Structures are given as C-alpha cells and as structure tokens.
C-alpha cells in the first residue's frame, strides 16, 4: 500500500497534519523514497530509514531514526 492510500484511512484532522509534514519532508529532501512501514509513512535514503510520521488519535509525531 502506498502512502496516499494509507492516508485515506486516517482521521481527517490527523491526515491534514500528516499531509503538511509530508509536504515539508518532500520539499526538504525530494531524493528520499517514501514507504508505509510499521504502520507509518517512512522516508528512506540509500536503504536507510531517516524519518517517519507517526499518527495517533489526537496528535502526530515526526520521528527520526
């Protein structure tokens, strides 16, 4: 499943926050590949996880590996 498909199933308020973070990541580092891994959009460079967007009921975390 791709990130677009994954986000369709997320609460609209949380999805809006996650999309804002997603856009920021994509602008800052367009070379990163984007996957859904362990239930979260995850961004990878050269096969190494760099950052993920963790979504919870009432907040969103940006987590670095």
The helix content, as a percent range, equals 25-40%
Give the total of beta strands.
4
| CATH topology category name | Aspartate Aminotransferase, domain 1
Q: Give the structural class.
A: alpha+beta
Spans of 5+ residues with little confidence (pLDDT < 50)?
none
CATH architecture: Alpha-Beta Complex
Written overview of the protein:
With 65 residues, the chain is α+β, with helices and mostly antiparallel strands. The protein is built from 2 helices and 4 strands. It has helices at residues 3-8, 12-28; strands at 33-37, 40-45, 48-55, 60-64. A 4-stranded antiparallel β-sheet has the order 1-2-3-4, with helices on one face. A hairpin with a 2-residue loop joins β1 (33-37) and β2 (40-45). The model has no long low-confidence stretch (mean pLDDT 95).
Please specify the SSE layout and strand pairing.
Elements: H1 3-8, H2 12-28, E1 33-37, E2 40-45, E3 48-55, E4 60-64
Antiparallel strand pairs: 1-2, 2-3, 3-4
């Amino acid at each position: 499943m791709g990130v677009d498909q994954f986000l369709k199933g997320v609460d609209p308020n949380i999805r809006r926050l996650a999309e804002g973070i997603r856009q920021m990541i994509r602008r800052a580092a367009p070379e990163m590949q984007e996957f859904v891994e362990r239930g979260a959009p995850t961004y990878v460079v050269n096969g190494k996880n760099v950052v993920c967007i963790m979504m919870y009921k009432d907040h969103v975390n940006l987590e670095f590996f």
